[in-house]
Amino acid sequence: MSSSKRTRSWAEPYKIKMVEPVRMISREEREEAIAEAGYNTFLLRSRDVYIDLLTDSGTSAMSDRQWAGIMMGDEAYAGSENFYHLAEAVKKYYGYTFLVPTHQGRGAEHIISQLLIEEGDFVPGNMYFTTTKLHQELAGGTFVDVIVDEAHDPESEHPFKANVDLNKLEDLIKRKGADKIPYIAIATSVNMAGGQPISMANLKKVRRLTRRYGIPIIHDMTRVAENAYFIKQREKGYENTPVRDIVHEICSLTDGATMSAKKDALVNIGGFLALNDEELFREAQNMVVIYEGLHTYGGMAGRDMEALAIGIRESVDEDHIHARVGQVQYLGNQLIDMGVPVVHPIGSHGVFLNAKKILPHLSQDQLPAQSLAAALYVDSGVRSMERGIVSAGRNPETGEHHYPELELVRLTIPRRVYTQAHMDVVAESVEAVYDNRDHISGLSFDYEPEYLRFFQSRFKKSKKS
């Protein structure tokens, strides 16, 4: 018997119990569909999409236990039993004392922004996220990016590109004054950087610095379990620590959190604001009644709160999180082997194509990431999304485009939905588009809404420069 070892194959830690048919329309139909959608993949009809990698938000497959929980929904207007189950799960797995349920993450972002931010404040964070930044601006604040420089370099192999640059953060505090910084926004598994994690060591340093200045940390914990998995894989001293314990430790270093439960927590709708300060919690309770719903449902049905409570427990299961991140790594490594420029290292929830490098013949004003996402859909019916100049928006004072360093197309993998065979189809399509990249033309705006323009903008083929 040979003593040499080889890597053994692995399979998803679940069986398929129900299937949802998908269809592939013809190339001519796809060309017509994307044109009708104004070359915006958000405006495509889902029935015209073959493999949907637009987002991992609310697109995961729930487990049999979650579906059983749906049948246990207590739809009482006040005091639903499912709310108390959810509050218990949040305290057990995350450690936060108080819970304010919301319809999804941006409901929590709105409440915390309105409660803590005053006109003229500055909110530092480890890279912006679209809805978070907008809520901060609408409350009168200015977002300031204090992430490490490596996060803006798609080819950097830094293992923790979501780390905070402590010098940038302290410089901001000294220049503006601690009283003008209501909190620091810390995201785990930073989306706009390519699903990149923050290290525990860095978060502990941020905690020590903010305590010195009396500044709270508000945690965007949308993908905290995925971040914890990377800490287990990459950070010395955590190799044998269960993911659930790493998650709990991350949360213990923060003062509160906003959660879009539609990601890590494996539900199709829902979110919450979690807090440790009782006075702030009472204010948030009062606000949720105005904007979301009563404080014991906050925009969610009882059945959804029950599914969420179960999903939180499942999200920190070792087999689940290994398979979830592993599928993303599988697709990313295929594309790297094919020579396709992607963000390194491969992140937790999606593979991010480097549109600037793939389409160097297009200027950023020709919207290369938007153009690449449209071309990918035409090739195979795979729906992805832009994360570049369109997502970055405009300066609210000057009206000029923000020009981010990263111009990316995100291939976002829903949890427990697609097989490795689907990933193979995606990889082959990306390779085909990459091989034909010189023929991809740019786009320009045809319609642009005032806020979060990437959702609803329409585009047209741009004239050659």
Automatic annotation (TrEMBL):
Spans traversing the lipid bilayer: none
UniProt superkingdom: Bacteria
Its EC number(s): 4.1.99.2
N6-(pyridoxal phosphate)lysine: residues carrying this PTM: 263
Broad enzyme group: lyase
GO biological process, alphabetically ordered: tyrosine metabolic process
GO molecular function: tyrosine phenol-lyase activity
Catalyzed reaction equations: L-tyrosine + H2O = phenol + pyruvate + NH4(+)
Limits of the Aromatic amino acid beta-eliminating lyase/threonine aldolase domain: 52-428
Keywords for the protein's UniProt record, in alphabetical order: Lyase, Pyridoxal phosphate
Cofactor(s), names only, from the UniProt record: pyridoxal 5'-phosphate
Quaternary context: Homotetramer.
Family, similarity comment: Belongs to the beta-eliminating lyase family.
Protein name according to UniProt: Tyrosine phenol-lyase
Organism: Fodinibius sediminis
